[in-house]
């Protein structure tokens, strides 16, 4: 549906973003200034205690300095309510008292149909709830009692019962005037292949309504009462309302609980979720009968930065955990991760809570491991690394795992942890932190190429930018400054390169602070951005723009050449990312050859020493002059040194 010009602007003008956000957060009144519309609160998009979520009510934007979530009132409604763009517009328009423009007839028809299907699903919920209370549902009630599911829990999750007949629900809905086509489209019945009347999808099953984040029933899950039934659990077929791979059981209540500080726990089934919620773990969800999908993983990260995946402790549960890890690795971002909690063998969360209580479950959750530990365990458990070839195979496998991580910063931290674990494995009884002081690089003690202590730098040199970081980090530091300098000189580029600026890691804290200020006002007019930066980061801004290499840079000097600045900024960002990627690869390669290098030095110099001793003994026996042999040996050793035999060719 297309909206008339000016409609969204009018909507944003009428709606206060502070009032929209205020329904989901608790303002920190110590930091907030209500009169100026400058509001602060803990972020609703990630779990935190400090108030790093900022709302500028006058400009109509929000920004989180922790997870970098940003947007306006529409995007806030879309993210927190998990609705589409037009649904968010409708919600805000209703709040503002604005009439929505006339819809395209086909679009209106689709929306009306979804509403009709949702109403049919609600009628089915009521039917199943009623059937649980009848004589036909006696066995189901006994089963729920044996599972210690209280009447309050049954009511809370609206658990019902589908009778064993073939057309119980069908006839009930038809009797209420629901069309055959709607019943079939909702997935509540199936068409007969034998020319007979359609039959119910769910028969003789305990029923669990599945609701979307807005609370609408979109599907059902059914647990068979007959032990001989080949399918213990079945879900509704996919419909216009229900996409199994994009849905989580208990999504809405879990999101609300996580927003209040609860842990987000991913369990395997309906009964596990219900048991967790009843035990006080309100942030429990479950995928719907399949392994976690990429879409479900993104939904989880919308709710919480670090969900805990609690899976059964058997072999199948461990395989499921590793599938989740494999899915998550390429999608990892800074601050977005998973922890894996393996249940005791033979127990699921429902069993554990009933057998040992809430404290036992909390202990399992507290012991949840980061994903890197599962990667390490998969590569090493039950294997022997008693030969160089086997160790090399382990290194190769781990490198392949790490290369799947797209975020270079996260990949680097994973590499550091793998290196620590490797040191513990191959040096029994000695932790990597006990490895002793770092050794200085080996240098010859005399002769050609002798190492000399570097002279002390002059005061002017110590104060220069080139002394701010060692090695390759100097160039990266200069490039960071260039990126920010171009953005300051051409504020219009901040919005264009917003996503790249968000992702690029800045090592200098001053650069990072300035970048945050830029992103906060990215959508303002260029002149307003310049003024805002002067007010909020005046000292750091002045220091940056007075750097000699920025003053002479063409994209900074030529304030009227936006295209030149755009091209230069894109190139600098690409070079910064490429340089860090190359450095990461070099560090990995150096780790691989470190052991081989040391062994190469020892072997070659050992062979040279052996040759020397043999030569000396031979000449002493012959009573010969040793001068020529000494010279030859000295030349041989010097040749080894000059050739740098310890380096991998």
From TrEMBL:
CC cofactor note: Binds 1 zinc ion per monomer.
SUPFAM superfamilies associated with the record: DNA primase core, Zinc beta-ribbon
Annotated catalysed reactions: ssDNA + n NTP = ssDNA/pppN(pN)n-1 hybrid + (n-1) diphosphate
Zinc-finger ranges (CHC2-type): 43-67
Entry coiled-coil feature ranges: 559-599
GO BP: any one term: DNA replication, synthesis of primer
Residues covered by the Toprim domain: 262-344
Keywords: Coiled coil, DNA replication, DNA-binding, DNA-directed RNA polymerase, Magnesium, Metal-binding, Nucleotidyltransferase, Primosome, Transcription, Transferase, Zinc, Zinc-finger
Region (Disordered): 429-454
CDD domains on file: TOPRIM_DnaG_primases
NCBIfam families tied to this protein: dnaG (TIGR01391)
Domain notes: Contains an N-terminal zinc-binding domain, a central core domain that contains the primase activity, and a C-terminal DnaB-binding domain.
Assembly and oligomerization: Monomer. Interacts with DnaB.
Matching HAMAP family: DNA_primase_DnaG
Protein name, entry field: DNA primase
Species per Swiss-Prot/TrEMBL record: Pseudothioclava arenosa
């Amino acid at each position: 549906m297309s909206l008339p010009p000016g409609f969204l602007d009018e909507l944003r003008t009428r709606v206060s973003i502070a009032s929209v956000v205020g329904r989901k957060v608790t303002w920190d009144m110590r930091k907030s200034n209500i009169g100026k519309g400058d509001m602060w609160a803990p972020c609703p998009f990630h779990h935190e205690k400090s108030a790093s979520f900022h709302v500028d009510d006058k400009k109509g934007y929000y920004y989180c300095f922790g997870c970098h979530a940003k947007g306006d009132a529409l995007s806030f409604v879309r993210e927190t309510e998990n609705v589409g763009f037009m649904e968010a517009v409708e919600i805000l328009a209703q709040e503002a008292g604005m009439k929505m423009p006339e819809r395209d007839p086909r679009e209106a028809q689709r929306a009306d149909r979804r509403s009709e299907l949702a109403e049919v699903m609600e009628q089915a919920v009521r039917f199943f709830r009623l059937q649980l209370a009848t004589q036909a549902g006696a066995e189901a009630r006994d089963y729920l009692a044996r599972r210690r599911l209280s009447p309050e829990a049954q009511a809370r999750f609206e658990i019902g019962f589908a009778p064993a007949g073939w057309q119980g629900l069908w006839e009930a809905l038809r009797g209420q005037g629901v069309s055959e086509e709607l019943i079939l489209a909702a997935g509540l019945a199936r068409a007969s292949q034998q020319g007979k009347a359609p039959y119910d999808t769910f028969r003789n099953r305990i029923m669990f309504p599945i609701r979307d984040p807005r609370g609408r029933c979109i599907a059902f899950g059914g647990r068979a009462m007959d032990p001989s039934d080949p399918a213990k659990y079945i879900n509704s077929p996919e419909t216009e309302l229900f996409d199994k791979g994009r849905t989580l059981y208990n999504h809405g209540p879990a999101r609300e609980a996580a927003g209040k500080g609860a842990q987000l726990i991913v369990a395997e089934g309906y009964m596990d979720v219900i048991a967790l919620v009843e035990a006080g773990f309100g942030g429990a969800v479950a995928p719907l009968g399949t392994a976690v999908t990429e879409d479900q993983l993104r939904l989880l990260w919308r709710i919480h930065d670090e969900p805990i995946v609690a899976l059964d402790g058997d072999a199948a549960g461990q395989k499921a955990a590793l599938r989740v890890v494999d899915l998550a690795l390429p999608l990892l971002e800074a601050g977005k991760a998973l922890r894996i909690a393996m249940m005791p063998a033979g127990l699921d969360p429902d069993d554990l809570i009933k057998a040992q209580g809430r404290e036992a479950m909390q202990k399992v959750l507290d012991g949840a491991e980061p994903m890197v530990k599962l990667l390490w365990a998969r590569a090493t458990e039950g294997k022997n690394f008693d030969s160089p070839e086997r160790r090399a195979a382990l290194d190769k496998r781990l490198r392949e795992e790490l290369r799947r991580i797209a975020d270079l910063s996260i990949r680097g931290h994973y590499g550091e942890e793998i290196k620590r674990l490797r040191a513990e494995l191959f040096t029994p009884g000695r932790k990597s932190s006990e490895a002793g002081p770092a050794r200085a690089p080996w240098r010859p003690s005399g002769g050609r190429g002798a190492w000399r202590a570097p002279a002390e730098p002059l005061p002017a040199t110590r104060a220069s930018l080139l002394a701010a970081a060692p090695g390759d980090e100097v160039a990266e530091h200069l490039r960071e400054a260039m990126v920010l300098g171009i953005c300051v000189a051409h504020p219009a580029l901040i919005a264009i390169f917003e996503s790249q600026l968000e992702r690029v890691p800045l090592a200098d804290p001053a650069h990072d602070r300035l970048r945050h200020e830029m992103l906060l006002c990215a959508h303002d007019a260029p002149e307003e951005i310049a003024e805002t930066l002067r007010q909020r980061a005046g000292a750091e801004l002045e220091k940056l723009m007075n750097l000699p290499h920025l003053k002479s840079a063409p994209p900074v000097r030529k304030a009227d050449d936006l295209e030149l600045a755009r091209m230069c900024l894109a190139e600098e960002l690409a070079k910064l990312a490429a340089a860090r990627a190359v450095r990461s690869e070099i560090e990995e390669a150096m780790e691989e050859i470190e052991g081989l290098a040391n062994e190469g030095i020892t072997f070659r110099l050992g062979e040279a020493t052996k040759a020397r001793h043999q030569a000396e003994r031979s000449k002493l026996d012959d009573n010969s002059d040793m001068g020529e042999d000494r010279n030859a040996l000295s030349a041989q050793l010097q040749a080894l040194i000059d050739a740098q035999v310890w380096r991998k060719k």
